[in-house]
Write a structure and sequence with these properties.
Nucleotidyltransferase, domain 5, globular
Length: about 325
């Protein structure tokens, strides 16, 4: 185990900032969450978000000795882990989040991309424990990712590595929120499940009749989590959509394997709740698409183990380690 991965002591607080909620927890040295707090995200006001973070930290530290606070943010975090340069679902633009929160709470603070934090948690405590070359892909509303190599998160020169969802897989394909066309995110994310279901329903496809009945005719209610639930219940249209999303995921993983050659892919995020409904077609597509197939080992593709708290667990563990280096 590298020096970067060496275990250190003390309780730390992890905070996961999403577009709708701020989830926080006190995390021990084994990665267990021993106390939790949650608030709604005031997404339009950067100062209000900082105040909300300070509020949950203050609540959770009562009666406990806390060594540091780690904040997982969905967005571009600079290489110093101090500023959120851009967050698509929040009002942060070049926001000095680390220093702003540290000033209020009086504790050491780090800021980390949320997918990097989740990848670290899975490497330390979850499905990728001690794998020397791990790549995590998170499938939710969009697609994020993280890379852990020999116990070190690979953040890139500018802190922005791991934006796997914005690899272009279909030139001139569907328009992505990032401004480009044909990004993987437009073919293999939770949003895709809902979008495709709504399009099929609008076209009066007979296979969608049970789905439409499930939402009492309200096509707008056909969103990713509902499609996941339906697929797990065996709904034919939902299962078909998962096969298609899995196929595209496998293509994306094959591209990542060509560039990074990991030993393990860990798949997390809400879409991964479907398990092998997603992963079986992804593995099949990966094996069909991987360059050099037949003459190289295949990386394993597994479901993440830590669920929706992986981000806050990883952020807390990184903050604990950082506190020992100061």
């Amino acid at each position: 185990m590298s020096q970067d991965a060496a275990g250190v002591g003390g309780l730390a607080i992890g905070v996961d900032i999403g577009g709708t909620k701020v989830a926080a927890g006190v995390v021990d040295t084994d990665g267990a969450v021993i106390a939790r707090a949650r608030r709604a995200t005031p997404s339009k006001d950067p100062r209000a978000v900082e105040e909300t973070i300070a509020e949950v930290v203050t609540e959770l530290r009562q009666g406990r000795e806390i060594v540091g606070v780690g904040i997982g943010a969905a967005g571009f975090v600079d290489a110093d882990r101090a500023r959120v340069l851009f967050a698509p679902h929040l009002a942060w633009r070049n926001e000095p989040l680390r220093d702003g929160v540290a000033k209020v709470v009086g504790l050491p603070v780090i800021v980390e991309n949320d997918a990097n934090a989740a990848a670290w948690a899975e490497w330390r405590f979850g499905a990728g424990r001690d794998e020397s070359r791990l790549v995590m892909v998170t499938l939710g509303t969009g697609i994020g990712g993280g890379i852990v190599t020999d116990g070190v998160i690979q953040r890139g020169r500018y802190g922005m590595a791991g934006e796997f969802g914005h690899m272009v897989v279909v030139p001139d394909g569907r328009r992505c929120e990032c401004g480009n066309r044909g990004c993987l995110e437009q073919y293999a994310s939770g949003n895709v499940l809902g979008r495709e279901a709504r399009e099929m329903a609008a076209a009066h496809s007979p296979v969608t009749v049970p789905l439409v009945q499930r939402v009492k005719g309200d096509h707008a209610a056909l969103v990713g989590p509902l499609i996941t639930e339906a697929a797990m219940d065996g709904d034919p249209a939902a299962v078909e959509l998962f096969h298609e999303v899995g196929r595209w995921l496998g293509i994306g993983l094959a591209n990542l394997a060509a560039a990074l050659d990991p030993g393990l892919f860990v798949i997390g995020g809400g879409v991964s709740d479907a398990g092998d409904l997603l992963l079986a077609p992804a593995r099949e597509s990966f094996r069909r698409t991987l360059t050099g197939r037949g003459f190289r080992p295949f990386a394993s593709i597994v479901k993440a183990a830590l669920g929706p708290e992986a981000g806050l667990v990883g952020a807390a563990d990184l903050a604990r380690r950082e506190s020992q280096l100061r």
